[in-house]
């Protein structure tokens, strides 16, 4: 898990980040939050991270929900958050 929150500022001044509760986002102004993925149980008690809301793959299965969440955050960080990623730019906060 990451110990810090990274905020990417777009060319139009929009902010993008992987949502966590480390600080009150309302202090930054108007907040628009959208789901970036779905971490769900499988029929056999394992877990997957479906990143289709941001054009990504389904990761897993994982034995633990926490493993699926960790993989979800890592994928979002590498493929959605960072500038120059292979995902299309999005103008919202997750």
Major sheet strand order: 3-4-5
Number of helices: 1
Query: What is the strand content?
Result: 15-25%
In N-to-C order, the SSE pattern is EEEEEH
Helix content: 10-25%
- Based on helices, strands and strand pairing, what is the structural class? alpha+beta
Gross morphology: elongated
Would you identify the regions where 5 or more consecutive residues have pLDDT less than 50? 86-94
Tally of strands: 5
Mean pLDDT: 84
Largest sheet: 3 strands, antiparallel
Radius of gyration: 14 Å
Could you give the distance between the termini?
Answer: 16 Å
How would you describe this structure to a colleague?
- The chain is α+β, with helices and mostly antiparallel strands.
- It is about 20% helix and about 20% strand.
- The protein is built from one helix and five strands.
- It has one helix spanning about 65-80, and strands spanning about 5-10, 15, 40, 45-50, 60.
- It has a three-stranded antiparallel beta sheet with strand order 3-4-5, with helices on one face. A two-stranded antiparallel sheet has the order 1-2.
- A hairpin with a 5-residue loop joins β3 (about 40) and β4 (about 45-50).
- Mean pLDDT is about 85; it is low at about 85-94.
What key attributes describe this structure?
alpha+beta, two-stranded antiparallel sheet, 94 residues
Short description:
This protein is α+β, with helices and mostly antiparallel strands and 94 residues long. Helix content is 18%, strand content 20%. It has one helix at 65-81, and strands spanning 7-9, 15-17, 38-41, 47-50, 58-62.
